[in-house]
Amino acid sequence: MKSNDFMTIYAASNEWGISEGFFSVLKSLPKHEAWFTGDATQYGQDLVLKTAIPNIKALYEKTCEEFNNYTKDPNYLNIGGLVKGVTQTNSEIKNMIDSKQYDHLFVKVLRRKKLDPIFGAYIYFFKYDFLEHCENLTTGFLAKLLKKRGIVVSDATILSYKKEGLLSVKENQYGIDTMSLNEVESLVLAKKKEKYMHSKNTANENSNFSVLNSQQQKIIEEYLSFRKKGGRISHNNYRAKKHIANKEETLAKLRSALATFFFRIICARCNIDQKPKMRYAFLTQDEKEKYDSNKFHPTQISEDDAFAFMTESKTTSAVHVFQTIKPFYAWILQRLKNDALTPDKWFEYGQLELRIESFLNQFPTNYSELASGETINKVNKSFLNREEMIIVREKLLNDPGSHDPYRNATIWELCCVTGTRPYEVRKLKIEYFLLDKEGYIKLNSRGWGELHIPREASKHENSPSHPVLGTVIPAGTVKRVNEYLKRLYKKQKNEPRGKGFLFRPEDLFPEKGYKSAIMTDVMTRLKTQLDFLSYEQRRDFELKASRRSMNNLIEGFGVRLPIERLNGRIQKVAADIQMRHKISGDIGEMHYTAPISDDDFYTVLNHTINFPWNRKELIMWEKELNLHSSKDFEIQSEEKESKKISQEKKEYELNEINSKRLDEINLQLNKLRKRPKGLTIEEWFEMKESLEKEKMYIN
Amino acid sequence: MKDQNLEIFSKYSSWEEFEGYIHEYGFEGSIPHVFEKIRDNDLLTPSDISYITGYSEETVRRWCRSWKLKTTTGRAPYHVVGSDLKNFLYYWTRKELIQNYK
User: Fold this and answer.
1) Contact list, B48 vs chain A (CB under 8 Å)
2) CA end-to-end span of chain A
3) Averaged pLDDT, A348-357
4) A31/A430 Cα distance (integer angstroms)
5) Cα–Cα distance between A645 and A652 in angstroms, integer?
6) What is the pTM of this model?
7) Taking CB atoms and an 8 Å limit, are B67 and A400 in contact across chains?
8) Which terminal Cβ of chain A has fewer Cβ within 10 Å, N or C?
């Protein structure tokens, strides 16, 4: 006979909707033992106290809820998932849990269905940091943890290293291969460095240089080494610049430009059609068979070559080619002139000079020498005001397609405020800024950041910062750049702080900068969204718009500073210093006047570019200083008119009855935003249409 | 506006701007009925969009997943605002539409 105080677990589970195993879980815990002991053990059946069942039900619901929450939470890892991904067996993990060292790295919830032989009454959920304390891991976990450490690797690359036998492998209890985290990390870093070193050597493999014969290659290399040494080229009235800027980059460009020039003439002589961008790799098989590099020698050149060359190219590109080959041929003539000692050689030299001159004369020297039907594509420059600058920054920050939106936004803001050219941004190093001990940007005594761009990082190596004032940065921008630096230092791991490139393709290598222009793809993605510009301006929008806009903000025609004394000459000089231009003016102004005072320089910039990068605060800031760009006035007056008209309409047209019905229709339309489940799409469209027709009728 | 370079207009205009053009100057060619029937603030599910466009539901979901089609929350269950869908569809059809008003 059963006592009235108890009931069987089977009956209780059916009646209250609790799983049967949950009772056995509770039974194993000393806390809840009292519910199952006492008289209940007499009958040889599993019994439970009737009065305790409501408490058990509440506990069951709570555990179910907790279990669901933790399984959905992406920050936690189920024990089943963990055990398959590590080397440790279940009992070893249980020992780790019991040791109480890792209590902050997991949470435990009561089991709902049955007792586990090893883990007992609890189920565990681990944080991902727990994995760092495990010996070996599987590839999926390795890739995830390395990503947390700032190293991006896919599972497949780790697998390929494993197949090559570069890693030591251990099998875990499920027969899955696991590897050591530190070993994989050091291997991946070493491989990445190796890849970088390799990529540097093969950067120019694509050029046409390799298809030329040895004689042609030799003459180009001799010319380049002469320019590298800083040799002077002068022939007749022509004199080339003695030192070329950015030698490493420009010499490589010169090599490929000369190589393509030779290549195109060879193609013309081999009856291969000229195309806009010619490369050996793009030729068809027949054309490759026709190609013979021995048909051309750099000195044996004629007018026909020039015509063949210019049939497919525009004036602008022809001028560009002319500018590269003019010093090359001047160098050849200069060298041959020195060797022409006998009368025969002198005669030969004279013939050659005539031929080369007539060849060069076929090229247009200026952009003004246009054919009748030809037009030059010009960039439609865009000048943004402060609000538009902020809008562009917001759009860059919310760009879903970009890899690192915060970096893009930082580049844009820095360019807007310092006027750095797109070409110079990729050459910016952290040591050019005024830094504190920890490698972050410091404010000077006036509360501004300072940037000192040296000659070698500037355009044509000829546009450094002002020697005393430098290029100044507002405090707000300094704060945001420092935030970017904070992220960068976290990602770059053990590399020294305060050194290396500010913007890098790979965060781990501070001394490796970009080889070509940056932000181009981001800007093309941005183009369609800039509805405040005209269509032509949108087409040609680029990063350099930031520099143009900054100059326009400081010394544009519409700018009127609140302090009358600063308008005019002082404002212009301040703009020139910040833009790193030569200070303009006549001889007296340039050479015989004292430089601009620091106070004036900082106040001009304070009234123009030291604005808050937030649209609401910007309106207050501009009101305080009485600054308005012409665009603002137009918008304000338009807004006022439209507001007036709409108010009058509302007062005049809407009477009470109509407005009530309108409210109803609007409510119904709002409900119909989503398609109700019973309706098909066509019925849905019809309902909306009929309601909107009625709305139109009332209006 | 009417003398504007058509090529540039076709490349860099959005549906709203094109709609503004129609409102001002009229339009002789035919516009797909989808553009008239969907309102700007409608919320559409992938099944609705697949019925309208003729692509399968999974394809639509892939558009949402790869950020080609803008969604309200960025995660499943996906909901697309009417104006965004129109802009997306306009990318495909605008060449044909713009040829009509030459």
Assistant:
1) 675, 681
2) 81
3) 92
4) 61
5) 11
6) 0.63
7) yes
8) N
